[in-house]
Amino acid sequence: MKIDDKVIGNHIKVARKNAKLTQSTCAILLNVSNSYYSRIECGTVHLNLDRLFEICKMLNTRPEFILEHCCPELDNAKYEKIEDTTAEEFHRMIDTAPADKLEMMFSVCKALYKPDDNQ
Q1: Cβ proximity of 8 and 46 under 8 Å
Q2: Domain boundaries in the chain?
Q3: What is the per-residue pLDDT across 63-89, written as a single tens digit (0 to 9) for each?
Q4: First to last CA, the chain
Q5: How many C-beta atoms lie closer than 10 Å to residue 99's C-beta?
Q6: Would you list the DSSP string of 34-78?
Q7: CA distances in angstroms from 82 to 85, 90, 107, 108, 116, listed in the order given
Q8: For residue range 1-33, what is the model confidence (pLDDT) as tens digits?
Q9: DSSP state, residue 13
Q10: Topology of 5-118 in CATH?
């Protein structure tokens, strides 16, 4: 499965412009070089989740906006009902996750799954 970093970079660029920030300002806030930040928006950098959420916080945007359509293989995916043990494990993770991680987990799940997908 291939994640399209160019789509992610373009979404970050749109969010940055909506926030009325320059690339230089974003680079300073993230403590990275101007060229590195530019590469993020060009899609030549593969972001880890920590950096993605740092960018989302800086731009005051949700991860699901940044991740939308970043993996064409999942755009039209239909998922079968998960096994009961998987659902139980997922519930345990939700019940025991710290608040900051819970919000991150929710955002990632929301970005990957839309309720209308199974209809």
Answers
A1: no
A2: 5-118
A3: 989 998 888 777 666 555 555 677 777
A4: 23
A5: 7
A6: HHHHHHHHHT-S---HHHHHHHHHHHT--HHHHHTTS-HHHHT--
A7: 8, 10, 19, 17, 17
A8: 788 999 999 999 999 999 999 999 999 999 999
A9: H
A10: 434 Repressor (Amino-terminal Domain) (1.10.260)
